[in-house]
């Protein structure tokens, strides 16, 4: 019994000595500081983009409204909304997508729809993207960040698959609310295809706003965007009616954001593959005295010519009967 007690005492002493030695070791061996910092950094670092885009994962506090002028491009819309939503989420750009659907019988008016879109949503954003529905950004280096230094033309002529002139600002353009209001938005005189973006460029230039563009991208005109546009089902309305050609070549100092006329006929929320957008349906109002070309030509003639033609046919028919 005595022998057992001595053995037990010995084991206890050895244990106490060991734990004392261990505590001394922990107290005096220095912690590897750099390893500790590395572990801490990797928890808060930015592994989101690999292409060296410099995007910040942290919220910038800015809010982007993507304004899409729209009519009869449903197939493109189905691809556009999920694609752009995911693209902007990867950049941590706080955004909302608004489709401005032209629901009247007038010719398409891209610029007026952008003005209307701006009036409807500007309380919820501090910058906008005027965005074609058929142009999908493919290169993650295309930044949709707040364009503090002046409008940022994402669909640059060096990257757009179709338009390559120096002053081109169509397709996709970022503008702050402040700058959009400064130039009174876009002209309302452009019914049918084209030139409204060139007139907007004249406004920016006159206001001495510099247009900035993406640089040093790893892609070019063939692989920066996907242009979902087949010109046969999606014919461009090139018609120049009345004195449209002459008027639309000039800088417009009378119309813009302050006097765009429209009627809001509906607002719907749409979810496409978990990505949300808001569809505003609007009827634009046209002053036919100042822009008679807002009405579509019927059967190859202008509406006035068409009216004259049909009344003379009626007369002929009557005479023949
Ligand atoms: N658009 C539309 N419906 C039309 C015409 C144009 O929705 O009937 C919109 C759409 O967002 C389109 C943009 O206006 O991407 C520019 O028109 P389009 O693609 O015809 O011009 P492009 O830049 O290809 O010459
Ligand atoms: Mn197009």
TrEMBL record:
GO terms for biological process: carbohydrate metabolic process; proteoglycan biosynthetic process. Residues 295-321 are annotated as: Disordered. Residues 297-311 have a biased composition (Low complexity). Residues 312-321 have a biased composition (Basic residues). Its cofactor is Mn(2+). Residues 151-221 form the Galactosyltransferase C-terminal domain. CDD domains: b4GalT (cd00899). Pfam families: Glyco_transf_7C, Glyco_transf_7N. Signal peptide: none annotated. It comes from the Eukaryota. It is found in: Membrane. Its EC number is 2.4.1.-. Keywords: Glycoprotein, Glycosyltransferase, Manganese, Membrane, Metal-binding, Signal-anchor, Transferase, Transmembrane, Transmembrane helix. Its main location: membrane. Residues 59-144 form the Galactosyltransferase N-terminal domain. The keyword Glycosyltransferase applies. GO terms for molecular function: metal ion binding; xylosylprotein 4-beta-galactosyltransferase activity. InterPro entries: Galactosyl_T, Galactosyl_T_C, Galactosyl_T_N, Nucleotide-diphossugar_trans. One of its GO terms (cellular component) is Golgi apparatus. Pathway: Protein modification; protein glycosylation. Catalyzes the transfer of galactose onto proteins or lipids. Belongs to the glycosyltransferase 7 family. This is Beta-1,4-N-acetylgalactosaminyltransferase. The lineage of its organism: Eukaryota, Metazoa, Ecdysozoa, Arthropoda, Chelicerata.
């Amino acid at each position: 019994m005595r022998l057992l007690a001595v053995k037990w005492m010995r084991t206890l002493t050895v244990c106490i000595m060991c734990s004392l030695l261990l505590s001394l070791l922990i107290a005096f061996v220095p912690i590897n500081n750099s390893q500790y910092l590395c572990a801490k950094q990797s928890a808060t670092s930015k592994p989101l983009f690999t292409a060296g885009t410099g995007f910040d994962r942290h919220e910038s506090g800015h809010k982007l409204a993507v304004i899409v002028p729209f009519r009869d491009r449903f197939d493109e819309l189905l691809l556009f909304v999920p694609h752009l939503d995911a693209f902007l989420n990867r950049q941590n750009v706080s955004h909302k997508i608004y489709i401005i659907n032209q629901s009247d019988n007038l010719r398409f008016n891209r610029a007026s729809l952008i003005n209307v879109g701006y009036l409807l949503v500007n309380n919820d954003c501090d910058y906008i993207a005027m965005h074609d529905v058929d142009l999908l950004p493919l290169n993650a280096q295309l930044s949709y960040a707040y364009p503090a230094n002046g409008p940022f033309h994402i669909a640059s002529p060096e990257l757009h698959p179709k338009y390559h002139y120096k002053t081109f600002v169509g397709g996709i353009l970022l503008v702050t609310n402040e700058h959009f209001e400064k130039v009174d938005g876009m002209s309302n005189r452009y019914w049918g295809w084209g030139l409204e973006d060139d007139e907007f460029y004249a406004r920016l230039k006159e206001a001495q706003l510099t247009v900035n563009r993406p640089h040093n991208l790893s892609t070019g005109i063939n692989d920066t965007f996907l242009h979902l546009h087949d010109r046969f089902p999606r014919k461009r309305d090139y018609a120049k009616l009345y004195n449209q050609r002459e008027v639309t070549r000039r800088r417009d100092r009378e119309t813009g954001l302050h006097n765009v006329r429209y009627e809001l006929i509906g607002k719907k929320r749409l979810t496409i593959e978990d990505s949300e957008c808001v569809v505003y349906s609007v009827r634009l109002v046209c002053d036919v005295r100042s822009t008679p070309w807002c009405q579509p030509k019927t059967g190859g003639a202008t509406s006035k010519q068409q009216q004259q033609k049909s009344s003379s046919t009626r007369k002929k028919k009557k005479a023949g009967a």
